[in-house]
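User: Run a structure prediction on this.
Assistant: Running it now.
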Amino acid sequence: MLVDSHAHLAHEGYLESLDVLLARAQTAGVSRIINISTSLEELEQALSKFKACSWIDHACAITPQDVAQLGELQFEAIAAYARKGALIAIGETGLDYYYTQETKFLQKDFLKRYLALARQCHLPVIIHCRDAFKDFFSVLDEVEPVRGVLHCFTGTLEDAQELINRDWMLSVSGIVTFKKSEVLQQVAKWVPLDHLLIETDAPYLAPQPFRGKPNEPSYLVHTAKFIAQLRGITFEELAASTTANATKLFGPSKAC
């Protein structure tokens, strides 16, 4: 069984075919999905849509790219959902200097606020980090320790080592299957198995052989098989380990 540790199920492109998409995921062996909402509206839609499906859990935060527009407007409402137990993680939050370097000070402020919220609610944090690893580690070292995962990891081996030194997990997406992803493949081969998660980041970043098409949780099996082969272990061992890691980080989930 597999856990998709990061998917955007409330994406508008999924609304009409969501039941079919989820059935394909279960047929493929995906036993749990961590659904990521990036706005209050997405979260409320997801909580309503999936309220009878306990194999889908929820996380929410305003992404670093959007904190200038939505950060202050929606922080307290999202925090209220976290405090009443509707979320199993805070995120995705973090730093993105690739698209929005001009807001980096505001991004760091909201990252600290979300880390504090996670600590207050005893929840893990899901981090988006792009072109900002130095500042991310600096912020992480400034605050009290929290548990977390760096999703869709695209950093260097040195970045991965810094993360593992802080006892965080990293999650690998379908990018690892791309031919030119030699550095990420090196990371996926090196990372200790008890610190590894896998994800789709659906509907983005579909693995080979679906590259360029909308991604979905059922495609997670392709990423898992690729990483297992890369590490020289069985698919079953990779699946069991990453599922156990997801349970360790996010807590247990009941079957639907």
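The chain has a mean pLDDT of 95.
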